[in-house]
């Protein structure tokens, strides 16, 4: 209870545990050897102590307080170890303080760091009256505030750790140095200490490691079904094997090491393999885990289901082939009730059966059409009395259907009457316009076989850009300004079939039109494109201005072709046509005769064909007619054929260029089909196949 202490050059210490270990702690000496005492903290342990009677302890505290009171110095009663405090002890201590005048009590816990600063702050306020009076907070309320403060500081510290520590390989010394300047680190260490800060760091690192392991596990498990599909795709191989034998079978597979790795140490997640991100092979011991076992069982179940579905598809196809209710053209809705049973619905979706049914129907229909075509060939005499325009009347069609009506091959297409009628019309068209395109033998047509045989026999000495084009295709540029090109293109398309085919001399040709009305120097208006090689150009005019546009465009096109060294485009066949002058009359002083004369002059200059309305026998004021279009296209076709001539030579013949008549004399070996093909097919190159009078196909 002394208020003046003297201990010159003595070390300050906090507790006797430091005696003998002075070098391990910060060393401070007593100031000036003298120390005045300004106040006292009277500490009372309120925990349950061994062999200690609290009532006797409180008597000792009471006597001690009486000694301190004589000094006239401020005193604060501090209840310690309140985190383990006994409620009665705390109550008795407060009762003791109430009996004294102005004696304040502070409940503390040094272990939890609760109200320790408050105890000293309360004493300082009593010593220095100028300071504000400290508010005394009960232990449990202070503990709550302390817990909230620690929780907030912990959240901020954990955020700091998660921002800095991204890898589970990080070490505490390095990370703690990085975090020391951060207030989040400082606040938490002040409240909880360095060891707890390190503990949270280690928990975070462990969490990162587990997350990394889990990611690797998911990668391996995602790869495992693919490995099983590659190594053991056959159900018969593994269906009755135990797990151990199945693993032995996997190890024996040639591609085992492509999918798996056998580690010397296990488990896999405790080895360095978990950090080898470039090696995605599955650790073999992973197969022992429950998740891998489930995937293996799922693989078995998948193979069993696939086998069952394959059996169902096969059974369904067999059902289709044997069912008398499935006929060509019968819709699925009508056939379903006759061919489906409950087992089919259990294993496959109805869409799968519909797909199989659709393919089966296609086979039935193709076979029925083929049989019907043979029927038409057998009854070829029915079609001899038709007109040459190949358009039978309704009465004639009725006669044909009546004659064929009793035939089973006719009845087979009962649900496809439109297609059956189309086949009849197609057959009639073939009878009067026999070509390889209309031939019912399709790819087996003799004409097609002849072309294939000739292409493989003859040597081509001259190549032309147009020679590789399909001879049955015509690419036509239509040149004209102010809508002339577009209008004529639409008129020509109106004369074509639905699939842009045009008939010339009884033969179908694919017609591609490219109307141009702008600057031909621009790519969008170029005569030639990567997908369009023109065979000719139809130049339209109806005025002096439109004629000038045609001339300028042709000259520009030829200049561009010369720059590209494209001889074909420079020599493109041209036809100049005077077409309908909108509104008629002599607009602008231009007469029909003057436009014709100007067109003839330009045609002579461009060395091209000139067509005028009078040449076609039509009056001025009408557009180019179908006859003129046919003349133009036929002329282009003839020019194209000339470019496609193949010049070849064989021993014993003269070159075709000297005008000699080339003749081939061959002997047909009747008993040798191969020789017959080699001899007969070249001879019959220009002879199309026709139906024989007695039925069947003949050459």
UniProtKB/TrEMBL annotation:
<dbReference type="Pfam" id="PF00071">
    <property type="entry name" value="Ras"/>
</dbReference>
<dbReference type="InterPro" id="IPR039007">
    <property type="entry name" value="pG1"/>
</dbReference>
<dbReference type="InterPro" id="IPR051978">
    <property type="entry name" value="Rho-GAP_domain"/>
</dbReference>
<dbReference type="InterPro" id="IPR027417">
    <property type="entry name" value="P-loop_NTPase"/>
</dbReference>
<dbReference type="Pfam" id="PF16512">
    <property type="entry name" value="RhoGAP-FF1"/>
</dbReference>
<protein>
    <submittedName>
        <fullName>RHG35 protein</fullName>
    </submittedName>
</protein>
<dbReference type="GO" id="GO:0005096">
    <property type="term" value="F:GTPase activator activity"/>
</dbReference>
<dbReference type="InterPro" id="IPR032835">
    <property type="entry name" value="RhoGAP-FF1"/>
</dbReference>
<dbReference type="InterPro" id="IPR057284">
    <property type="entry name" value="FF_RHG35_4th"/>
</dbReference>
<feature type="domain" description="PG1 pseudoGTPase">
    <location>
        <begin position="468"/>
        <end position="645"/>
    </location>
</feature>
<dbReference type="GO" id="GO:0005829">
    <property type="term" value="C:cytosol"/>
</dbReference>
<feature type="coiled-coil region">
    <location>
        <begin position="293"/>
        <end position="320"/>
    </location>
</feature>
<keyword id="KW-0547">Nucleotide-binding</keyword>
<dbReference type="GO" id="GO:0050770">
    <property type="term" value="P:regulation of axonogenesis"/>
</dbReference>
<keyword id="KW-0343">GTPase activation</keyword>
<dbReference type="GO" id="GO:0008361">
    <property type="term" value="P:regulation of cell size"/>
</dbReference>
<keyword id="KW-0963">Cytoplasm</keyword>
<keyword id="KW-0677">Repeat</keyword>
<dbReference type="GO" id="GO:0007266">
    <property type="term" value="P:Rho protein signal transduction"/>
</dbReference>
<dbReference type="InterPro" id="IPR002713">
    <property type="entry name" value="FF_domain"/>
</dbReference>
<dbReference type="GO" id="GO:0042995">
    <property type="term" value="C:cell projection"/>
</dbReference>
<keyword id="KW-0175">Coiled coil</keyword>
<dbReference type="GO" id="GO:0005525">
    <property type="term" value="F:GTP binding"/>
</dbReference>
<dbReference type="InterPro" id="IPR001806">
    <property type="entry name" value="Small_GTPase"/>
</dbReference>
<dbReference type="InterPro" id="IPR039006">
    <property type="entry name" value="RhoGAP_pG2"/>
</dbReference>
<dbReference type="Pfam" id="PF23083">
    <property type="entry name" value="FF_RHG35_4th"/>
</dbReference>
<dbReference type="GO" id="GO:0012505">
    <property type="term" value="C:endomembrane system"/>
</dbReference>
<dbReference type="InterPro" id="IPR045786">
    <property type="entry name" value="RhoGAP_pG1_pG2"/>
</dbReference>
<feature type="domain" description="FF">
    <location>
        <begin position="365"/>
        <end position="430"/>
    </location>
</feature>
<feature type="domain" description="PG2 pseudoGTPase">
    <location>
        <begin position="663"/>
        <end position="699"/>
    </location>
</feature>
<dbReference type="InterPro" id="IPR036517">
    <property type="entry name" value="FF_domain_sf"/>
</dbReference>
<dbReference type="GO" id="GO:0003924">
    <property type="term" value="F:GTPase activity"/>
</dbReference>
<keyword id="KW-0966">Cell projection</keyword>
<dbReference type="Pfam" id="PF19518">
    <property type="entry name" value="RhoGAP_pG1_pG2"/>
</dbReference>
<feature type="domain" description="FF">
    <location>
        <begin position="309"/>
        <end position="363"/>
    </location>
</feature>
């Amino acid at each position: 209870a002394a208020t003046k202490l003297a201990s010159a050059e003595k070390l300050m210490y906090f507790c006797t545990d430091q005696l003998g270990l002075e070098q391990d702690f910060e060393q401070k000496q007593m100031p000036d050897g003298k120390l005045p005492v300004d106040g006292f903290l009277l500490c009372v342990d309120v925990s349950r102590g061994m062999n200690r009677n609290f009532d006797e302890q409180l008597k000792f505290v009471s006597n001690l307080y009486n000694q301190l009171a004589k000094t006239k110095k401020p005193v604060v009663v501090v209840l310690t170890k309140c985190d383990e405090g006994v409620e009665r002890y705390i109550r008795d201590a407060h009762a003791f303080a109430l009996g004294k005048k102005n004696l304040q009590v502070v409940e503390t816990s040094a272990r939890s760091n609760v109200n320790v600063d408050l105890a000293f702050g309360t004493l300082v306020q009593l010593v220095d009256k100028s300071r504000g009076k400290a508010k005394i907070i009960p232990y449990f309320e202070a503990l709550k505030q302390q817990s909230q403060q620690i929780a907030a500081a912990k959240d901020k510290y954990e955020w700091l750790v998660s921002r800095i520590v991204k890898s589970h390989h990080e070490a505490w010394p390095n990370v703690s140095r990085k975090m020391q300047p951060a207030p989040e680190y400082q606040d938490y260490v002040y409240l909880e200490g360095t060891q707890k800060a390190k503990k949270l760091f280690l928990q975070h690192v462990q969490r990162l490691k587990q997350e990394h392991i889990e990611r690797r596990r998911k990668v391996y498990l995602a790869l495992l079904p693919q490995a099983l599909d590659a190594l053991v795709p056959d159900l018969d191989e593994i269906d009755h094997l135990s797990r151990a034998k199945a693993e032995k079978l996997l190890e024996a597979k040639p591609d085992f090491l492509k999918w798996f790795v056998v580690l010397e140490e296990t488990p896999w997640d405790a080895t360095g393999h978990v950090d080898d991100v470039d090696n995605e092979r599955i650790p073999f011991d992973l197969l022992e885990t429950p998740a891998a076992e489930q995937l293996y069982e799922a693989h078995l179940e998948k193979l069993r289901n696939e086998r069952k579905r394959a059996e169902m598809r096969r059974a369904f196809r067999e059902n289709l082939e044997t069912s008398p209710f499935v006929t060509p053209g019968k819709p699925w809705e009508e056939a379903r009730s006759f061919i489906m049973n409950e087992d089919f619905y259990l294993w496959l979706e109805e869409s799968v059966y519909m797909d199989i049914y659709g393919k089966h129907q296609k086979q039935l229909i193709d076979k029925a059409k083929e049989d019907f075509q043979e029927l038409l060939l057998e009854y070829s005499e029915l079609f001899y009395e038709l007109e040459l325009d190949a358009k039978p009347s309704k009465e004639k069609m009725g006669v044909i259907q009546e004659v064929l009506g009793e035939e089973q091959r006719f009845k087979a297409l009962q649900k496809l009457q439109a297609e059956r009628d189309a086949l009849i019309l197609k057959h009639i068209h073939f009878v009067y316009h026999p070509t390889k395109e209309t031939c019912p033998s399709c790819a087996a047509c003799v004409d097609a076989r002849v072309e294939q045989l000739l292409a493989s026999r003859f040597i081509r000495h001259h190549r032309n850009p147009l020679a590789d084009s399909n001879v049955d295709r015509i690419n036509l540029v239509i040149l004209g300004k102010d809508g002339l090109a577009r209008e004529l293109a639409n008129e020509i398309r109106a004369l074509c079939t639905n699939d842009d085919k045009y008939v010339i001399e009884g033969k179908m040709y694919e017609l591609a039109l490219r109307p141009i009305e702008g600057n031909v120097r621009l790519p969008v208006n170029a005569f030639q494109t990567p997908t369009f090689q023109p065979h000719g150009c139809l130049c339209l005019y109806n005025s002096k201005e439109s004629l000038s546009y045609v001339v300028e465009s042709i000259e520009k096109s030829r200049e561009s072709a010369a720059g590209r060294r494209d001889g074909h485009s420079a020599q493109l066949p041209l036809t100049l046509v005077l077409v309908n002058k909108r509104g008629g009359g002599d607009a602008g002083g231009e007469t029909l005769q003057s436009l014709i004369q100007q067109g003839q002059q330009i045609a002579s200059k461009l060395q091209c064909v000139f067509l005028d309305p009078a040449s076609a026998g039509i009056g001025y004021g009408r557009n180019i007619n179908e006859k003129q279009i046919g003349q133009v296209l036929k002329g282009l076709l003839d020019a194209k054929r000339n470019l496609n001539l193949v010049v070849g030579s064989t021993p014993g013949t003269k070159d075709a260029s000297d005008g000699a008549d080339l003749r081939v004399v061959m002997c047909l070996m009747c008993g040798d089909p191969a020789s017959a093909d080699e001899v007969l097919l070249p001879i019959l190159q220009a002879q199309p196949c026709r139906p024989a009078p007695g039925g069947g196909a003949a050459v």
